[in-house]
Description:
By secondary structure, the chain is α/β, with parallel strands linked by helices.
Amino acid sequence: MQFTHVFDRPRLCGALRFLSIGVLTPLLLMIAGERRWTKVDAGYTVVEETPKLYVLSIGIDAYPKDSKIIQLEFAVADAKGVASAFSSAQVKNVFPRVEITTLLDSDATLAATRTAFEHLVKVCNPMDVVIFYFGGVGTAVREAPSASGAGHSPAQFQFAMVDSTSTQNRGGIDGFSLQNPLTAKELSLLLLSIQAQRQIIILDTPYSAAAFDSLNAALNSDSVFTLHATGRKFVLLGTSGMAYERRELGHGEMTSALLDGMAGGADTQHTGYITEAELEGYMMAQLSSLAKGHHFLSKPEEFDEELLSYSDLRGLCLSSGTSQNPDCDPEYGYNPEWKPTEASRGMDVIEPPADEKPAERGTDYALILASDKYDHWPSLNNPIYDAQTLEQELVQNYDYAKQNIVYRENPTEDEIFDALSDLGKRTYGPNDRLLIYVAGHGHITSSGLGFLVTRETQLPDEHPYLKSALALSSLRDVIDQLPVHHILVVLDTCYSGIFKERKAIPAYSSENLDTPPSIDSLVADKMKPVSRLYIASGGLRAAYDGEPGMHSPFARTFLKTLRQYGGQDHIIDMGKLDGAVQGLCPHPYYGTFGIQQEGGDFLFVPEPGAHPVPDPGLDAKVPGPHCS
Length: 628
């Protein structure tokens, strides 16, 4: 399918829809450092160190014709724009020393990219900031099954450099693969070789989700060299759709939103400075607005552009109108106690205890937060009823010990963070699981920022910036840092899909297996990768509360799925849970966040002889809402 509209041009078209390196595939790594006092010269001299900002911006429009790679139009302009945006006077108010490197078109070879990274390896310190912007073409390729019959390996993402070529390959996402590419695996090694702790990666390209999965799998492929074990903090930004270029903008849509945001548009609260969270929220809103302009498509809803995002650095200050703004924090996320070691390629290594052996099934924990009474917002009918029924079901039929469930009704923001803090102090085994269930009011601002409404939250008319509400991004980041390997967040609130990007996952079934594995072996296998998963009832729309005493539509479906106890498989994984709720309206969102690893899952394992908790509300027949 080829789109050639005069105003809108998809970055990847037809059979050659690949990722782009310089053109519009921005991989923006940003690492912000901290100003601190450091001893040098054998400890006798004390100097003040300040962070440097390093920008490597790559853009490719003109791939050689014999490479059979699609030509792009605005990737070079995008790469130049990024370099300019991050060398502005406002950025230099935060990072006084900025070094810019651009690789455009014919200069953007694989060798030149490696050389640029080698320079960063030599010059970067842990407190420095590195921005790597990649715009161009790419693809995800699955390797053939192994001779042992173990199945396909995870897809490997390939970034097309100017000296790459394409070749037919049925394992490619569009039937093609690349020769001489920059792979996600090599990119991960390059990133981890740089001492700078904080890094932002932006992918403005089709298949950003596939690129995220591949890069995340590569960064976490070693049980020792995981992101959290190496002191690294990342931001990943991409687009869920076709990554359109727009001639009236002179840029790709996502990059245009990035540049507008850095030019001041992201300062929606008029504080005089811009944080990563504000830039992310602005880009999300702008990208959604731009997607509505794809009027030339017969089914534009199938091509909606949405921002994919993951961030450890939402409080990092990127730009400021003055150099003396005390609220602008360029040190956010930097850990001065982290020290590189030669054995870890510039990273601390956290070795697991030698005697640590995973339990067969692990222990289940839960945090249940339910609110139906508020100081300022309208009351709700069912959140506490939903939560109480869920707690009973978990205790009676899923082996959740009462002392392992933290239950809070109508909590304040402080009470929520106190509960999370208590969970963070516990010791968990590698197969332990934590369910976090949240029910109540949610809200989204005009700039695309999502919030959980807590008991004391003011109404938007009185406090338009919702400073008294709990930002979903903050909640997400705190949850990601909890020291438990497997976490599922269930959000039965309005607009909760803003929590993270959508992603599908297949459900497990033993129906076609001659010899199904035992429950213990299945749990042990599925619990190997780290998981960070969520289901959000409202998507990006308001969620229905339901009639009093009848549960919300989402809670009814969630509870009824638990009451099926996994059917013949005697296990409920995320694929089954996601499939069960997809018939609801609004359509719930499912996705991953944080340190999720390739294949990470969350399981509900019912006890033998499980039987439903008596509940008249669930037994009654209630018509569900219909999408308009």
